[in-house]
Amino acid sequence: MAPIVIMDKNGRVVIPGRIRKQYRTRKFILEADEERIQLIPVRSLESLFGTIPELDIPAIRKEHEEEKDEE
Length: 71
Fold this sequence. Notes:
This protein has 2 helices and 2 strands, in the order H-E-E-H. It has about 70 residues and is an alpha+beta fold. It has one domain. The longest helix is centred in the last third of the chain and has 14 residues.
């Protein structure tokens, strides 16, 4: 059975520890419609390290920083 969580008076919901450990992230995309609310985990680049052998995280970061500086 899925866990039931409670929202506090400030609108905060605690995600159970076993679920937090499964996704190892603190960032989520929140999608909502008239029937449901979904939290979709956003994984960091570091969490992908090793899953794609040709992924060069330092090069990607450098390119991103250069693009930010150009804006």
